[in-house]
Amino acid sequence: MPATLLDGKKLAEDVRSGLGPRIAVLAARGIVPGLAVLLVGENPASVSYVTAKEKACAELGMRSFERRLPADAVEADIIEAVREFNADPAVHGILVQLPLPKGVSESRVIEAISPAKDVDGFTPVNIGRMVIGDPCFLPCTPHGIIKLIEVAGVATAGAHAVIVGRSNIVGKPLANLLTRKSINATVTVCHTGTRDLAEHTRRADILVACAGVPELIKAGMVKPGACVIDVGVNRVDDPSKAKGWRLVGDVDFAAVSEVAGSITPVPGGVGPMTITMLLYNTVESAERPA
């Protein structure tokens, strides 16, 4: 029996609908949640992502602020732009679009963001708060994944979750969230140094693929009935397409769908939830006392 499709677009719409009344309450107090985006360079994928975020803000009645700097901008100018957003009371959330150009320290730029406006959950302060379980802005993609797992109806307490990928953006923070007592999963994190990857993935009740390798996870690597979350977004050549390429995830979707119990598509799975949780965190920031 084919796996149940976990529709990230539908869940994102539901979450955004829940933000509407909260934004209305803020508006009655004269507050409009504001998200500021800093884009350095003209990376097509980054430009497209920023445009999608601005559109989402407009649809919810939120304000969006954008600062674009050339690809050859020096680090000091990038950090100064961040500090200007920090000082602007109309800005409740700040997003620095990654990656940054070579020669610019992503860590120093991220550290310049005020933790109170770090709606991506990337600053050391918010990461530390997340690790010890203190209130903080949760990283958007891992937070969105948790909500997708909840919607799938997967029993997480005592479940074995396997994460393929150890990035600071997805793999590491997701491992932390899954081990929280409220979720209570047992987590294995796999990476390039893992021996016999399939031996680990076949034991997963929840399998998250975030390695950035096209169709890495094959059907024979998946436990029957598992919940499979595909974070990958990869371009592969496809002469049959007008653009000459198509998007695929880190999971062989067609084959794995015949084995898994539930699965996210690419596109339309994790991606919509990432943007939505960014808006969620921005509204939460606007709700906090000044």
Comma- or semicolon-separated keywords:
290 residues, alpha/beta, Rossmann fold, 2 domains, 10 helices
Task: Give a structural overview.
This protein has helices spanning 8-28, 44-60, 75-87, 106-111, 124-132, 140-151, 171-178, 197-201, 253-256, 270-287; strands at residues 4-5, 34-40, 63-69, 93-96, 160-164, 186-190, 206-209, 227-230, 234-237, 245-248, 262-263. With 290 residues, the chain is an alpha/beta fold. The protein folds into two domains: 30-116, 3-Layer(aba) Sandwich (Rossmann fold); 140-271, Rossmann fold (3-Layer(aba) Sandwich), CATH 3.40.50.720. The strands form three sheets. A six-stranded parallel sheet has the order 1-11-8-7-5-6. Strands 3-2-4 form a three-stranded parallel sheet, with helices on both faces. Strand 2, helix 2 and strand 3 (63-69) form a beta-alpha-beta unit. Helix 1 packs parallel to helix 10 (270-287), helix 6 packs across helix 7 and helix 6 crosses helix 10 (270-287). The termini are far apart.
Characterize the largest beta sheet: strand count, sense, and whether it forms a barrel: 6 strands, parallel
CATH class of the largest domain: Alpha Beta
Rg, rounded, reads 19 Å
The count of strands amounts to 11
Class by SSE composition: alpha/beta
Average of per-residue pLDDT values: 96
Number of H/I helices: 10
Contiguous low-pLDDT stretches (5 residues minimum) are none
Q: Report the sheet-strand fraction.
A: 15-25%
> What is the count of distinct domains?
2
How much helix is in the residues?
25-40%
The global form is: globular
